[in-house]
Specification:
This protein is mostly helical and 229 residues long. The protein has one domain. The chain is built from 9 helices and no strands. The longest helix is centred in the first third of the chain and has 27 residues. The two termini are 30 Å apart. The mean pLDDT is 87.
Length: 229
């Protein structure tokens, strides 16, 4: 049992790293970036002395604080695992950004190829975290907190959350630079396509593992809703 649990945690860690790789590849495609990372990217462009990964860490902490506000006394200590997950995620983003710093697409066809590769990598990473089913990342956990309070459909709420992330990124971009940057056709493609690719990979991997009994009620309910939506 302990060995099986350790393998699930390893799968989660692998998923987080692969997700970070996918996000960086999408960003390097120069066609935009993923909705959840759009605000972090915009802030990195506006303030390049602070790394992309650092901004993403603080963005995730903001999402975690949003869960505390929404859930209040129902907030579970297990959710604090999102902090080390966010640390790994942010470090991975900076590592891949450094590794791919040399690459610039030569033409639009190459950009589209990078976008497709990034979406596949992102979906593969998300699929690993779904199959591991031991902890949520901050974005999905915030959506779960919202749905636990409202009874809304998880999938529909996730779409609304992604749209909100893009709107926030646009507003931040306009305030800091006077124009919109980092939100383009690749952002739309990532938002629309990723979920379908995730579903394919999750089915290919045999579906999510049973929820941990130590997980919060909101986490277990949200996991069920996410795969029934």
């Amino acid at each position: 049992m302990k060995k099986h649990l350790a393998l699930r945690w390893c799968l989660l860690a692998i998923g987080i790293v692969v997700m970070a790789a996918g996000i960086v590849i999408v960003t390097k495609s120069a066609t935009g970036n993923t909705p959840i990372s759009s605000t972090g990217y915009v802030l990195n462009v506006a303030f390049p002395s602070v790394s992309y990964g650092v901004f993403m860490f603080f963005w995730n902490i903001l999402l975690l604080l949003g869960q505390v506000v929404i859930l209040r006394r129902r907030f579970q200590p297990l959710a604090l695992l999102q902090i080390p997950i966010s640390v790994l995620f942010s470090l991975s983003i900076d590592a891949f950004a450094w590794l791919l710093a040399w690459f610039t697409p030569a033409n639009y066809a190459e950009s589209l190829g990078m976008l497709a590769l990034g979406i596949v990598a992102l979906a593969a990473g998300v699929s690993c975290t779904v199959v591991a089913n031991v902890a949520m990342n901050c974005g999905e956990a915030l959506v779960a907190a919202i749905t636990s309070n409202t009874g809304w459909n998880f999938g529909h709420t996730k779409v609304g959350f992604d749209i909100s992330c893009v709107i926030i990124a646009c507003v931040v971009s306009l305030i800091t630079m006077g124009h919109v940057t980092g939100v383009r056709e690749g952002t739309v493609a990532a938002a629309v396509i990723t979920g379908f690719v995730v579903n394919f990979f999750v089915r290919l991997m045999g579906g999510p593992c049973p929820p941990l009994k130590t997980g919060s009620k909101e986490q277990r309910a949200a996991t069920r809703k996410k795969h029934l939506a």
